[in-house]
Amino acid sequence: MSHRLAEWCSNGPILEEDLAITNFALDLIGRAQGFYRYAAELEGKGRTEDDLAYKRNERQYFNNLLAELPNGNFATTMARQLCLSAFEYYFYTALQNSKDETFAALAAKTVKEVRYHMTHAADWVVRLGDGTTESHDKMQEALNDLWMFTGDLFEMDETDRAMAEQGIGVDIEALQPQWTEYISGVIKKATLQMPEAEHMQTGSRQGIHTEYLGHMLGEMQYLQRAYPDAKW
Amino acid sequence: MVDVQYTKEEIFDLLSAIADPEIPVVSIAEIGMLRDVCITEDGCEVIITPTYTGCPAMGIIEADIKALLDSKGIKSNVKLSYTPAWTTDWISDVAKEKMRKYGIAPPEHSSCGNIVVAEEHIACPQCSSTNTEVISRYGATACKALYRCNDCKEPFEYFKCH
């Protein structure tokens, strides 16, 4: 997600948005560093957070599908941000109660940042939805196109379930009603229609992704693949 | 090398002189990032906590700590700790006043619940007027927002409560 958002750098519709979106990207990098560093430490095989970010293949990534989708236009980016940030808000709010001290601390930090992302994205969804006919249509189209990837957010695999049962992770499925209520509130305020869910595309829990992730990793991991262990 | 001439408190005092790279008028101790110093067998371990997870100043702060202690002949290791999570509540009142004089409106609320409400009527650091408005929720750094004072017309940065 951070990599995607960074693609807006110098391409934002206005300077303030350029700053906002790249600041989201920065928050997300910091969060990834924190979690990857902890994962590497727990694994204890001498890998670092950078190894986990730059040396895994597509199928070894378990990010939500929504996070890897292309930026599209500004409406697509904000609609995607709203869906994802709202999910993260409820997810990290719950993770603050994790029995794992590091998870709880990282979650407490993340929640504060995500609240800004979510509010910012919601403001834009409302502004564009309740704007001109053109901005309204673009925002509605963005939501309709992204909707089939939102079901993936709430899927759980065996590891997720085991972590939730032990009070380390979060019961992700249980977050869906709160998320839906919040999103539908924003959509209503934006004078938009809730998209219909005919089919939900999932797969991230099994490492099965959209065609976009591979291309993105190709760019993101290029340097470490071409010059392994390069440092600068 | 064990350098026995420095106690934990002395090292802490030394480190308190290190300025925040983004807001050089306040120190890393005043802003609440410097958490602890532990004397170890071969030097000391300095525990710092990030303000924002992705704060790029962390690398500079770590380098500053090492360079300062190196110059005193103290071997150090800098550890990043996320527990407990940093909050703007840890910024001392003295530091807040220094920020204001520097032109940055300090965080006004305790780690607030409702950011939309908390973002209103931030006092202008130049003229103290609360007739101000948000220009952008993100400024030059993730921790600050851009504001404009409707009375003195000056733009200013606000350190968001966190």
Describe the 3D structure.
The complex is a heterodimer of chains A (232) and B (162). Chain A is globular. Chain A has helices at residues 2-6, 15-43, 49-54, 65-68, 74-95, 101-129, 133-147, 158-165, 176-189, 211-220, 222-226. Chain A is mainly alpha-helical and 232 residues long. Chain B is an alpha/beta fold and 162 residues long. Chain B folds into 2 domains: 8-80, Fe-S cluster assembly (FSCA) (GMP Synthetase, Chain A, domain 3), CATH 3.30.300; 100-159, no CATH class. Chain B is built from 4 helices and 7 strands; from the N terminus they run αββαβαβαβββ. Chain B has helices at 8-15, 57-71, 93-102, 115-118; strands at residues 34-40, 43-48, 76-80, 104-105, 132-136, 144-149, 155-159. The longest helix of chain B is centred in the middle third of the chain and has 15 residues, at 57-71. The mean pLDDT of chain B is 86. The chains are: A mainly alpha (232), B alpha/beta (162). Chain A binds chain B through residues 16, 19-20, 23, 26-31, 33-34, 101-102, 104-106, 108-110, 112-113, 115-116, 119-120, and chain B through 50, 52-56, 82-86, 111, 115-116, 135-142, 146, 160, 162.
Helix content class of chain B: 10-25%
Distance separating the two termini of chain A? 24 Å
Strand order of the largest sheet of chain B: 4-7-6-5
CATH topology category name of chain A: Ferritin
